[in-house]
Amino acid sequence: MVSAKTILTIFLTEGIKTFNEDERIKSVIDLLIQIFGLEMEALSLYAGLEKQDIEKFMKDTTSIDYEKKFKLATASMMLHYLFKK
User: Fold this and answer.
1) Cα separation, 8 vs 2, whole angstroms
2) Which of 58, 61, 56 has its CA nearest to residue 29?
3) Spatial distance between the Cα atoms of 31 and 54, rounded to a whole number of angstroms
4) Positive or negative: CA dihedral 74, 78, 81, 84
5) Which of 80, 15, 84 is nearest to 46 (CA)?
6) Tens of pLDDT along 44-59?
7) CA atoms within 13 A on the CB side of 8
8) Burial class of 51 by CB neighbour count within 10 A (0 to 12, 13 to 18, 19+)
9) Domains recognised in the chain with CATH numbers
10) The whole model's pTM is what?
């Protein structure tokens, strides 16, 4: 049986390369919404964006500019960190 530590090590060295930064943030947003029950409206408030910006990003990651992506990514990661605590 492969240990969880081994699986994590493999993921961190190889698996993370298979997902680009935008896909990782989309996954975090999905997790916040589906697992933690965060509403997209709340995420938009925390990120300082319009709800439509987040909806567009979730459909097409190239649809918003880098400044909005940065705001969305930092808010998403901070919320994920807080919810996990």
Assistant:
1) 10
2) 58
3) 14
4) negative
5) 80
6) 999 999 999 999 999 9
7) 3
8) middle
9) 20-84 (1.10.260)
10) 0.79
